[in-house]
Design goal:
It comes from Neolewinella aquimaris. With about 180 residues, the protein is α+β, with helices and mostly antiparallel strands. Helices cover about 25% and strands about 35% of the residues. It has helices at about 25-40, 130-145, 155-170; strands at about 5, 45, 55-60, 75-100, 100-120, 125-130, 180. The mean pLDDT is about 95.
Length: about 180
């Protein structure tokens, strides 16, 4: 089922999400719905807070972001109760966007490598290191479960330039490409 994506301004996007256990209600259905919602919106990642759940869960399919012919280097993974253990390498800048903040992009500096411990959908624990674009997508989605939006990491001038657009998104005054839930008012 396609879920509405919570837009900028929704309080759930600014909360630190809570860990979950295998008995979380309807978890398999939620994960399935998140995959379907992300794909419908042409995203490469989606965190549970973006669908109104303040839990430590996100899904990533970074294969479309890989160079042509190297799609298999992308990741297609469920991350539950993730914890970043280390970020390493030089910071590099890349124009990021977000399904909760449509039509706004901006350069964000992030380390080129991240080591993360997480559980998969079977609650098996993994520790993996990701590099480049995979690391960036993991870091972006991880920020969501920490209550951080990419717009907070923009340079001051860019923050000022997008302020009016952010307010329009908060109020729902935008053209929609997928189902969203707004603050309104």
């Amino acid at each position: 089922m396609i879920l509405p994506i919570y837009a900028y301004g929704q309080p759930v996007l600014k909360k630190v999400a809570q860990p979950i256990t295998p008995d979380y209600p309807d978890l398999a259905q939620l994960i399935s719905d998140m995959w379907e919602t992300m794909e419908e919106a042409n995203g490469v990642g989606l965190a549970a807070p973006q669908v109104g759940r303040s839990i430590r869960l996100f899904v990533i399919d970074s294969r479309p972001m890989q160079e042509e012919g190297k799609e298999e280097e992308g990741i297609h993974q469920v991350f539950i109760n993730a914890e970043i253990l280390e970020e390493a390498g030089d910071d590099w800048s890349y124009g990021e966007g977000c399904l909760s903040i449509p039509d706004i992009t901006g350069d964000v500096d992030r380390p080129e490598e991240v080591t993360i411990r997480f559980q998969d959908e079977n609650f098996d624990t993994h520790t993996r290191t990701f590099n480049g674009m995979n690391a960036r997508v993991v870091q972006h989605e991880y920020d969501h479960i920490e209550g951080i939006l990419f717009t907070e990491m923009l340079k001051p001038l860019k923050k000022r330039l997008v302020k009016r657009k952010l307010e329009k998104i908060r109020k729902g005054d935008i053209d929609l490409k997928y189902r969203m839930k707004f603050v309104r008012g």
